[in-house]
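To illustrate the input format used throughout this study, we show a single complete record. The first block contains the structure-token representation of the backbone; no residue identities are included at this stage. The design step must infer an amino acid for every position from geometry alone.
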């Protein structure tokens, strides 16, 4: 089963053009998906509002979002878009690496290849387990643990002093 999954992800028995096309498409579309989810999150946040640590809903003494923060956000977005347009149109290779222009050889891994800092945990997990399927399962479990953290401490009140044992300890 592990070999079939590897073949399905790679698009064949080795990393080739199909693999590179799939990962390029994934890395091209993922920022748009994340941007869309961020906009939906902001929409729900501004419709329902957020809660304070006590879990009480107090609607007084709030600053309206629309005029003050909307203009600030639009200014920030405008500055970022202007910088992006400048880089795209005036200096497209300023953030590039000369190594990217060397043709890829699927049979030889270059010596200088190392993962970025945000992939080091995944690289360490995959290198520590010799079995491919075991490494992928361990990596999936390591990521699933991160998804369970928001549900770990889901209480109505965030402070421990509101609970009976917490009052005694306090």
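Output of the design step:
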């Amino acid at each position: 089963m592990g070999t079939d999954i590897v073949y399905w992800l790679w698009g064949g028995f080795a990393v080739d053009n199909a693999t590179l096309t799939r990962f390029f498409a994934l890395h091209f579309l993922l920022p748009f998906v994340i941007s869309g989810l961020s906009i939906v999150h902001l929409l729900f946040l501004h419709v329902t509002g957020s809660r304070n640590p006590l879990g009480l809903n107090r609607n007084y003494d709030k600053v309206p979002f629309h005029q003050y923060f909307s203009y600030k956000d639009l200014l920030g977005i405008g500055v970022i878009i202007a910088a992006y347009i400048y880089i795209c149109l005036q200096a497209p290779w300023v953030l590039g690496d000369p190594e990217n222009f060397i043709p890829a050889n699927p049979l030889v891994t270059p010596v200088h290849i190392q993962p970025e800092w945000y992939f080091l945990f995944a690289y360490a997990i995959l290198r520590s387990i010799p079995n491919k399927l075991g490494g992928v399962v361990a990596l999936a479990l390591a990521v699933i643990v991160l998804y369970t953290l928001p549900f770990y401490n889901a209480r109505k009140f965030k402070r421990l002093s509101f609970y009976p044992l917490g009052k005694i300890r306090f």
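Structural context for interpreting the output: The helical segments are 2-10, 17-48, 65-89, 120-128, 132-148, 164-169. The two ends are 54 Å apart (CA to CA).
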